[in-house]
């Protein structure tokens, strides 16, 4: 009887012990910082580097400088075009000069004098033509010359009237639009010139400088990568079996591989879509292979931990 009781106690211990020692749900990942990448605005040579990898920098601190010559020349050309457009607009607003108006009046007077002379000549030929003392073709030419002179008077009158009335409102509007476009292009180029002096947008630590002094990075290539923020975070992959029990805001404990110290954290993000979704893994036993990317924010006490270190996250408040 005693042997039976002893055997039963051992069986119960074997069953209860794993349940008592079973750990809380865990996820694996790495330690990361928020990263700021500074792309190359133009394909220019690096002429100066002011920092080194691993250096702590303040917001606005110079990081490097690209060659300025070509961008400065382009900016000067655009600024010259803007000045030209501004002067043209001022000319439109001022209107015609008094000398131009006086010249138009003189041209009108000359046209009127020619018209009177042509009309008088035609008037003299008309009776001679009726008496057949001159050829009919001479009379016709005199009539055409008279009508042409009268038309020239109308042209001169219209030209004088145009100058006296000044510039049209539509022309001024076109000049204003041309000036605005030229100034906008100059402003864009000025901003591009400022970007050639690469500065830190936020305080942080220089993580990477992919290019060296004298290199010419292509447009959009990463010139510098900064690690920013007050503390790092844990980037982990939550297994499918744990996904339903892990929520944003839950507390967690983070421990680096090979260390006993744990750091408190809290889940700040978890993706709704799994990182790996093959068709055959959507049902059945293979569904357990799915994982969901999550981020666990840490406190300032974790600021000295190495970036990229492997870690484990234990979710204390898993539901």
Give a written overview of the molecule.
The structure is a single chain. With 319 residues, the chain is an alpha+beta fold. The chain is built from six helices and eleven strands. It has helices spanning 2-21, 69-94, 98-130, 136-165, 169-195, 240-243, and strands at 26-39, 46-49, 56-57, 62-66, 197-199, 204-208, 222-239, 251-256, 262-270, 291-298, 310-315. A six-stranded antiparallel β-barrel has the order 1-7-10-9-8-11. It has a three-stranded antiparallel sheet with strand order 2-4-5. Helix 2 runs antiparallel to helix 5 and helix 3 runs antiparallel to helix 4 (136-165). The protein is rod-shaped and about 130 Å long.
* Domain tally: 2
CATH hierarchy, class of the largest domain: Mainly Beta
CATH third-tier fold name of the largest domain: Elongation Factor Tu (Ef-tu), domain 3
The CATH architecture of the largest domain: Beta Barrel
Q: What is the string of helix and strand elements?
A: HEEEEHHHHEEEHEEEE
What fraction strand? 25-35%
Shape descriptor = rod-shaped
**What is the end-to-end distance?**
44 Å
Query: How many strands, which pairing sense, and closed or not: the largest β-sheet?
Result: 6 strands, antiparallel, barrel
- Put simply, the count of helices is 6
> Which consecutive residue ranges, at least 5 long each, have pLDDT under 50?
1-22
Radius of gyration: 44 Å
Number of strands: 11
Spatial sequence of strands, sheet with the most strands: 1-7-10-9-8-11
Keywords: Coiled coil, Signal
Subcellular location: Cell envelope
Protein name: HlyD family efflux transporter periplasmic adaptor subunit
InterPro entries: HH_YbhG-like, UPF0194_transport
